[in-house]
Amino acid sequence: MSDVTEVVDRTLDDGTPPEPPVQPPGAWRFATPARHTLSNGIELVAYDIPGQYVISVRTVLPFPLSVEPREVEGVASIMARLLDEGTAEHSPEEFAELLERKGIALGASVTDGGLGVDLDVPKRRLAEALDLLRQALAEPVFPEPEVDRHRKTRLAQIEQERALAPQRAAQEFINTFFDGADRASRPTAGTTESISALTRQHIVDFHTERVGPTGMTAVVAGDLTGLDVVTLAEDTLGTWRNASHVPAPPATAPRRAVDAARVVLVDRPGSVQSELLVGWAGPDRHTTTGWAAYPVLGFMVGGSPNARVDAVLREEKGYTYGIRSVFRPRRVGGLFLTSGSVRADATVESVRLLLDLLASGREGFSPEEVRAGVDFISKTAPGRFATADAVADEAVLMALDGLTTDFTTRTLEAMRRLDGEQLTAAYREWVQGEWTIVVVGDASSYADGVRALGVGDVSVVPA
Amino acid sequence: MPLDYPIHEATLANGLRVVVSPDASVPTVTVNIWVNVGSRHEVPGRTGFAHLFEHLMFQGSRHIASGEHFTRLMAEGGRLNATTWFDRTNYFETIPKGAYELALWMEADRHGHLLDAVTQENLDNQRDVVKEEKRQRYDNVPYGTALIEVYAAVFPAGHPYHHPTIGSMEDLDAASLADVHDFFRRYYGPNNSVLTLVGDITPEEGFAAAERYFGHLLPSAEPARPAVPPLEPLADPVRVDRPGHVPNDRLHIAFRLPVDNTPEFFAAGLAIDALGGLSTSRLVQRLVRREQVANSVQAHAMGFVDGVSLGFLVVDVADGQDPEAIEAAVVEELERFVVEGPTEVEMESAMAQSERSWLSALAGQEERADLISQHVLLHGDGQFVNTFLDRIGEVGPDDVRAAASRWLRPESRAVVRHLSVRDEEAVA
C-alpha cells in the first residue's frame, strides 16, 4: 500500500484528516546590506527588499544622555521634536505641508542610546524625502514660538504619564533602582523642573554641539530596484557638515542605588487594578556569556499566555489579562523587567506568586520549554523581519549598540545551539532573588499584606 | 499606482470562501480567518459575548487541548492571535511554510468542533481574564471610557453599534455555557467565514489544503441577517459631560458617517483627514500651532457595514484653556468646510498620506491577508487591496465638500467632554 493510502486510512471518524506532519524550515539569515561611507562620514546601509514599495529611512546618532546639562535634562528629546518645526528654508507650516503633500511620515525621538530620526515614504518620492530629512537634521532653526509650544506640550505629557499606571510604574522604577546621581534614574524626556528651565538657546547649543554626521548611521530599506541610493544619499545627507560637532563620549554603566532592593507602593486610591513592575539588572548585548540566551529566557518566563507567569496568573487564576517578562538591553548594562496589571483584590497573592515564578527559573527549564522557546524566537525571524520598516528598525537598533545585523544572524545561530543547562546558568547569572518592586494602585488595601510578604522594605508614595 | 497583488478565489462546497495570494518573498504562510460575527450581533443582556467567545477558541477543541493552540503553533515559529470588533471576529497566524498545514488542521478543529472541549471552568477563567482586559484597557485608564460614551451618544439604544465590543461586567457575569453552545451553532461554520492564505504557496497548494482540512465541515451556521436600515446624521447636537480626575480636558467630537466601502464614505474620510487627521489639517493649524489652545488634535474614521459608520475628532485641551471656546472654534471651522470644501493642498495631502499608509498596510503578509479577508467577507470584493487607491483617487474636492455638508454639519455632532476636576473643586 502506498503512503498516500495509509494517510487516508487514518482519517478520523468525524471526517477530520490526520494531523499533518511539520516540515522544518530551511536556513535563514538577515538580509545582507550594501554599505557605503558618505563623504561627510555618515555610514550608509542599504537593504534592497523587492516588493516593499514604501521605503523606510532610519538615521541614528549614538550619544549617552549624560551629555545633557543636568539642569535642562530632556533637551535632547525636545530638540528632536523640533527638528521639523522650521528650517533655514521653510517655516514650520511650509515644512509640514511639504512632508504631507509627498506622503512622507517623519518622526524623531531620543532613547538612552541616542537620537533617531525616521522617515517612511513611497518609493518615487525618496529623493525629495532625503533632502527634507537633510534639512531637518542640518538646518533646524528652532523658532521661539515652536519651542514654547513643545515645552508646554511636554509639560502636559508629563501629567498624562503620571496618570497612566504603566508609565507611572516605569518612572518610579528607574527612580528607585538607579542611583539618584545617575542620569538613568530620571525620565529621558525631562521633568517638570528641567523642561521649565529649558530655553531656545539650550536647544540651539545642544544641536550645534551634539548633532552632526560624524558617527551617524543612515539605513535605507525597501524596493531599491532602479534607484541609485548612494548618489541620492550623497547629494542630500552627504552634503551636511558641522564643524562644531563634538564627538560623543562612550556610554558608561548606570549605577544602581544602594537600597534598590525594596518595594514602593504608588498610591492611587480607587484603582480597580494594581500595576506591577518587578525588575533588576540584566545583561546588555555585549555580555561575554552571549546574548542569545536572554530573548529565549524572557519568552519562557513571560512571553506568552502559556509561559510560566501567565500559565498561573492568567490561565489558572484569572488575575490578569497578561504579564510580560523581557530582558531589555541598554547601551551598557541592561534590565530584566516583568510587568502587567492584576485585579486589585488579588494584589498580594499576585506579587507572591510572581516572585515565586520568577525564582523558579533558577531551578531549571524543561526540555519542552527550551525547545519551544528557542524555536519560537528563531523560527519567527523570517516573518518578523519581512518588511522594510522591520528591517530598518533592527538595523538602527544594532547601529545604536555599535553592532550590525550580522549580530542578529549570529545570535539566532547561537540560540539554536542552546541547551537547558546553559539557559539556567544564564538566568542564574542575573536572577538572584533581589528585586525592585513597584505597585501602582490603591495602596491602602494591600500595603499591610505586601509588608507581610517580607520581600523588602515597603514605602508608600503619592501618585 | 496600479497594484497587482495576485488574488485567487474559490468557494468550497460547504460555503467556505477561500482566497490564496502567493508571495514567495518570505518562507512563511499567513492563515487568516474572518467570521461574520461581532458585537453588532449581540443581544441585550449579552454584550461582550462575541469577544468572550473568541477567548474560548484558545481553550481547546475536539482534538486540541486547552492552551495547545498557542503552545503548538508558537513552538513551530508561529505568531498568532485573534481579535473581535463590531462587525467581525478574526483568527490568524503567520507560520513557517512547513507548518501551515498544521495551523489549518488546528483552525478547522476549533472552527468545526469547539463545543466538545468547552467547560464551565474554562468559561469562568476566561470571563475573569476578559474582565481584567476591560479594567486594563478601559476602566483603569484616564479617558478610557470616552469611546464607549461616544458609541452610546452617536448611535441609538438597541442599534448594533450602541454598545462596545468589550461589553459590560454585568453581561459578562451573565454569560452561560448554554450561550456558548447557541452562539457557536448560530454563527460558526464554513458558510459564515472566509479563509485567506498569503505567502509562499501556489493557488493549487492553497486550495487543496483548504479542501483537505476544512472540506469535511458541515455548513452549520445560520444564514447571515441583512444589514440594518441606514441611519441619517444626528438631527440635533448631543453633549455628554464626564467630570473626573484626568490630567487635562479632552473633547471627543463625533459624527455618523455613511456605510463603509462607498464613494461617500471615502469622501467623508478624506474630509475628516482634511479637518484634523494631518499635521497640516486646518484644526491642527489653528488650535495647536497658531492659537496654541490645544495640545493635539486627532481625527479618525471607522468604517462599518450596518447602515452607518463613525467619524470623530479628539481635541486635547491645553492647560488653562476654555473647552467651550475650543468647541466653538471647531464649529466655526466645520461651518466653513461645509461651504468651501477642502483646499487643493488638503486634498493632495490627504491623498498622499492615504497612499503611503495603504502601501504600508499591504507591506506585510499579515495585514495584507487581514484586509483581503475583510473585503471578501463584508463586501464580496477580493480585489479591494488592488483597487482601493484608484477608487479614492476618483473622489474629487466637490465630493468631499458634499459628504461634509451632509455628515459633518455642526448640528449633527455628539460631544463627549472629559473635564478635569481638581480635588478642591470636588469638595466645594
Keywords:
heterodimer; A: 463 residues; alpha+beta; Cytochrome Bc1 Complex, Chain A, domain 1; 2 domains; six-stranded mixed beta sheet; 12 strands; globular; disordered N terminus; B: 428 residues; five-stranded mixed beta sheet
Q: How would you portray this structure in words?
A:
The complex is a heterodimer of chains A (463) and B (428). With 463 residues, chain A is of the alpha+beta class. Chain A has 2 domains: 34-239, Cytochrome Bc1 Complex, Chain A, domain 1 (2-Layer Sandwich), CATH 3.30.830; 263-462, Metalloenzyme, LuxS/M16 peptidase-like (Cytochrome Bc1 Complex, Chain A, domain 1, 2-Layer Sandwich). Chain A has helices spanning 3-9, 75-82, 92-101, 126-138, 144-163, 165-177, 192-196, 200-210, 229-235, 293-302, 308-313, 347-360, 367-379, 381-384, 388-400, 405-416, 420-430, 447-453; strands at 34-37, 43-48, 54-62, 105-111, 114-122, 217-222, 263-267, 273-282, 324-329, 334-343, 436-441, 458-462. In chain A, the strands form 2 sheets. In chain A, strands 1-2-6-3-5-4 form a 6-stranded mixed sheet, with helices on both faces. Mean pLDDT of chain A is 96; it is low at 1-9. Chain B is of the alpha+beta class. The termini of chain B are far apart. Chain B has helices at residues 49-56, 68-75, 100-113, 120-139, 146-154, 169-174, 177-187, 203-214, 263-277, 282-290, 323-340, 344-363, 365-379, 384-393, 397-407, 423-427, and strands spanning 8-11, 17-22, 28-35, 79-84, 89-96, 193-199, 238-244, 250-257, 294-302, 309-317, 414-420. In chain B, the strands form 2 sheets. Chain B has a 6-stranded mixed sheet with strand order 1-2-6-3-5-4, with helices on both faces. In chain B, strands 7-11-8-10-9 form a 5-stranded mixed sheet, with helices on both faces. In chain B, helix 12 (344-363) runs antiparallel to helix 14. The chains are: A alpha+beta (463), B alpha+beta (428).
